Amino acid sequence: MNIKSVILAFILLSIPFSNVLAQQQKINFIKLTKDGRLTYLSDAKGDIIPDFSNVGYHQGNKEIPHVKVVKELIPNGVNDQQQIQEAINEVAKMPLNKDGLRGAILLKKGTYEIPGSININASGIVLRGEGLATKLVATGTGQHKLISVNGDGKPKEVPQSRMKIIDAYVPVGAKSINVSNANNFKVGDDIMLYRSGTAKWIQDLKMDQIEPREGLVQWKAEDYHLYFERKITAINGNQITIDNPVVMAMETQYGGGEIYKYTFEGRISEIGIENMLLQSAYQSETDEDHGWDAVWLNRVENAWVANITSKYFGFSCVNLASYSKQITVRNCTSLAPKSKIEGGRRYSFNNDGQLNLVRDCSADEGRHDYATGAKVAGPNVFYNCKATNAKADIGPHHRWAVGTLYDNIITDGDINVQDRGNWGTGHGWSGVTQVLWNCEARKVTVQNPYVSGNNYAIGIKAEKSEGRLKGRPDGNWQLLNSKATVAPSLYIKQLEDRTKLK
């Protein structure tokens, strides 16, 4: 080896290997700055990969608390559901403390038989077990929820607060918008970022031309209005800055966008379900007349489900419904679901809400293990999750979910972001601003819709698939069968960058 080779080898060994890889990789959408932060590279329209870090319990700005126990129960095998429900109702009458909490109900070890549903309908209540030693069994028939967390009502627009966005194009990733008049808004206001569905958009997306079959419904503009919950963080003249980014461009050619203030008086908060085993009784491997959701949440914000193991439910371990917001689901496991293996079953971790985080979870024998439904308004994140013995695919399931990050998801099945065509009653384009980052799967499909945005596959270890329907625009692929070392986890890196700025 000559002296130049020795010097070069010494220099290379002196540089951290991860930095060498980062320098070698050229990602068109993200790169590291000199101070080690991510910077985002826009496309011709100005769209960037958005910041997904403001999701989960208090948007990641507050740790999940350990709440003081105010009530303890032991199973008696006679009226377990009644005594748990009575304890919840009793704690619901206690005053909220400064953090919005009332207290925790500790279910001591043993088996609790629950023929119906346990309902939590008030804020500040934690239902806690002693790990796998605390077992709740859904003994009743019918497709019911074992634990139901649900507030009341729906978002209500504040009269005379609606204002038109005047930007001709608000790109994906933007956190500032310009309105015709910001005088009636203030920092801290809850606002709805509204994007109307239009006939031109449906036509350009070709969702009025789905291949016909019995039961199919072509998309209609009035069914595709989108509502994104945001909070105002700054106002400068008529420019309003919001806490979470735009995840689907606001385009004047498709009706543009509006904002308005809203209230949601019936939504509850500060709920925790943690540390227990949830099971459903069942009669056979394909039984459909038993517990369907282990934990179901709706009309709730800033809540958590942690260290839950579910067995034998027909639909989900955790199901986040459309009005769930800023929920963290962490360290949960879905095992051995019992149902037919076909549509509408085995969605192990399902998210139809917004600003939610599902992390460090696992699923076995599910179908759509980490999935979103129709018109889901992001950002949302699935991070560091696994699926084994998968019976179907992971990803946005149907009808235009917006703004989801699938980060370090590992499955022995497939991950798909595609035009699903006439599956179901017309699933069509499953989503936009869907980002797959350092995922592993058997096969992966990522297509871009004809209009209104992009989907990304970065650092994917899988066979690249064309998808169900050929001839669709290809998604944005980089580092196929390699790792994105610029950020081993996009979510974690974005969170680190954001918290360092505070």
UniProtKB/TrEMBL annotation:
Tagged with keyword Signal: yes
Signal peptide, first to last residue: 1-22
SUPFAM superfamilies cross-referenced by the UniProt entry: Pectin lyase-like
Protein name in UniProt: Right-handed parallel beta-helix repeat-containing protein
Domain of life: Bacteria
Keywords on record: Signal
Keyword hit for Signal: yes
InterPro entries xrefs: Pectin_lyas_fold, Pectin_lyase_fold/virulence
Organism: Pedobacter ureilyticus
